[in-house]
Amino acid sequence: GFIASDMTSRNSSTQLWLITHYHENGSLYDYLQRTALDVDTCLSLASSIICGLVHLHVEIFGTQGKPAIAHRDLKSRNILVKSNQQCCIADLGLAVMHSQGSDYLDIGNNPRVGTKRYMAPEVLSEQIRTDCFESYKKTDIWAYGLVLWEITRRTVVNGIVEEYRPPFFDAVPSDPSFEDMKKVVCVDQQTPVIPNRLFSDSVLSALAKVMKECWYQSPSARLTALRIKKTLKKLNNSVEKPKLE
């Protein structure tokens, strides 16, 4: 997060400095390339991302308040991994804000923004309700399900783990076009294949269920960030209890 900013002059040119935290693990995308996860780490990464998304999505009132924010470009490259295996969400360049007080929604000119591979069906088909803030939160949930799929694939179960692959790696080219994604996601209504091995672990099986509920074609049928946060908290508690006995 933000630490400080400064303005300095060097060789008669003005430099604007922005100082932020440094996370040496890099992005979740980088981290998953080189790291196979255990179930605890998988759950820690997934839980911390959804906590961040809940914080963005919720409007907080008061002197230390904030508007509700939808990210609109959530993906593993825009999530940083801290040294304690917790994640933080980065790159809010395409985010939209909404405040109940003003009811103002700033989305710019193009509703079809973000990374094509992670776009929800209603964005690809241009059916999204651009005047409704809730619509953008639902696209974040679709993308969260894809990130969760990336994380769980890299989680070891019974000594088995897949190589890192991006969502829809087996269905579209490495740099897919809108039309590529639209055919797979909207026309064929495909979702990423969940490895069968995940269902032999109770935690990963529960995460697979969450994923599926992020991928409904109908945005209103998808889970909310808060609902996912509560589900994962319950999951965390069920994992921790046996350790205390």
UniProtKB/TrEMBL annotation:
Provide a GO biological process annotation: angiogenesis
Predominant location category: membrane
Bilayer disposition of the protein: Single-pass type I membrane protein
Which keywords accompany this UniProt record? ATP-binding, Kinase, Magnesium, Manganese, Membrane, Metal-binding, Nucleotide-binding, Receptor, Serine/threonine-protein kinase, Signal, Transferase, Transmembrane, Transmembrane helix
Query: Which GO molecular function terms does the record list?
Result: ATP binding; metal ion binding; transmembrane receptor protein serine/threonine kinase activity
One Gene Ontology cellular component annotation held by this UniProt entry: BMP receptor complex
Q: Does the keyword Ion transport apply?
A: no
- Localization of this protein: Membrane
Q: Does the keyword Transmembrane apply?
A: yes
What protein family is recorded? Belongs to the protein kinase superfamily. TKL Ser/Thr protein kinase family. TGFB receptor subfamily.
Q: What is this protein called?
A: receptor protein serine/threonine kinase
This chain's source organism reads Sylvia borin (Garden warbler)
